Amino acid sequence: MKVDLHIHTSYSDGAFSPEKIVDTAIDAGLEVIAITDHDNVLSHGIAKEYAKDKPLEIIPGVEINTLYKGYEVHILGYFMDLNNSDFQKLIKSQQQARIKQTKEIITLLAKRAGIKITLDSLLKQVAEGGSIGRPHIAKAITNAGGTSSVIEAYNKYINDDSNVYVQRKTVTPFDAVEVIYDAGGIPVFAHPYDVDIADQLTKEMMNFGLRGLEAYHRKHSPAIIEYFSTLAEKYGLIITGGSDFHAPNPNNGNIIMGKNFIPEWIYDELIKEKRRMDLAR
């Protein structure tokens, strides 16, 4: 069974609509996917409806962006009740934080760098109700002539050393883990290699309900996969994986989604974990 448990759509920073994600996943031979937009779950219902007569299972998913001790920590969630009131409050607060951060950056860009962009120019880059973030700001800066490329925009303006950048006032990873867990979901530490304190943070998050580590990721080498798989086994956590697909790979024109490096047993372990959690409640 071919699985990809980390995919983004135009409801966050992905290039494809939910419908195109479904078609692309099927073309890639996938049988199960999880759409995990940043701080947003609007794409799930759209994709589910579009795929109802197609050979593809779509797992409810999300990726919550959090901050802890200067680290950006991403928490994946699977199978949570999307209508849970606390989960809905979390999503709403995350969306409000994104808007507030964006407005502050827009003001500082105009004041300190002479670059004028608008909130509307960012909102047009995502599907209605979607999550705006740094990629959209960087693109708007480039479109406004502030830089010659998106990479340059990141290097000059979208980082903590820039005098126009403002960090988002987001929740902690512990908050995100706890809310997902309490909503009946499986919280997973996304691409943990990005966080220097991943080992200690994993142990701390387990106290709030963390149930998995994303060991398989397109940025993880075989050695990193082995390291975090061993860490997961040590702590009794499940192992998950996904391509973290946003757009076709510009380097070779191929779709990374569904790349055959995610073992089939990952899906079985995810389902078993969901059953264990449901029985324990």
Number of DSSP strand runs = 7
How much beta, percentage-wise? 15-25%
Specify the CATH architecture of the largest domain: Alpha-Beta Barrel
Query: What integer value in Å does the Rg equal?
Result: 19 Å
Q: How far do the termini sit from each other? A: 29 Å
Strand adjacency order, main sheet: 1-2-3-4-5-6-7
Total domain modules: 2
Backbone structural class: alpha/beta
Low-confidence stretches: none
In the CATH hierarchy, the third-tier topology of the largest domain is known as TIM Barrel
Q: Can you identify the CATH superfamily of the largest domain?
A: Metal-dependent hydrolases
| Helix-strand sequence | EHEHEEHHHHHEHEHEH
Task: Please bin the fraction of helical residues.
Answer: 40-55%
CATH class of the largest domain: Alpha Beta
Helices and strands in order:
Layout (H helix, E strand, L loop, with lengths): L2 E5 L10 H10 L4 E4 L6 H9 L6 E12 L2 E8 L6 H29 L5 H5 L10 H10 L6 H7 L16 H10 L3 E4 L8 H9 L5 E6 L4 H14 L2 E5 L22 H16 L1
Parallel strand pairs: 1-2, 2-3, 5-6, 6-7
Antiparallel strand pairs: 3-4, 4-5
Helix pairs in contact: 1-2, 5-6
